[in-house]
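Researcher: Re-running this chain for the archive, since the previous output was lost when a drive failed. Same request as before.
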Amino acid sequence: MKMFLRRYKFFLFTLLTVGILTIINKKIGFKALSIAGYSFKEMALVIPPVFILLGLLDIWVPRETMMKYMGENSGLKGIILAILLGSAAAGPLYGAFPIAAVFMKKGVKFTNILIFIGAWSTTKIPMFLFELSALGSKFAVTRLLIDIPGIIIIAYLLSTFVSKEEIKNIYQKAETLS
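Model: Regenerated structure tokens:
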């Protein structure tokens, strides 16, 4: 019981807070519950396909292949592949992190993982197509041409500022998640 309480203390605290809020002001309490329910439903629709794809990636793509195309010695092709994979991805940003963990298990370079996450959050193809139609090609292409170098620069800066020991610890934690 103690372990349960310790593990879910933030969730239980939030549940208690929303319960008290609902008692004090039913309208706001029910609105908070409605928003939480919607978010839960959205996550329940996104997470299963992401984990199915992760399982397939883990089984079908050998570690050697991932290291060849996105590992330490991948160079420009690793950067381009990270951008393409992140841009083609569907779903909210929290879907990128389990994929990043599998990439770590497969030996993908830390910088390429950061580029993948940056591309997932910024350069999605559907977003680019929407911007083309709604805001015009000049805006959409300009934003993309600014974002891609920005993502690469930020990824290299982060990998420079994060110590090798910390990166090693991150990779070890990813290994224990399986």
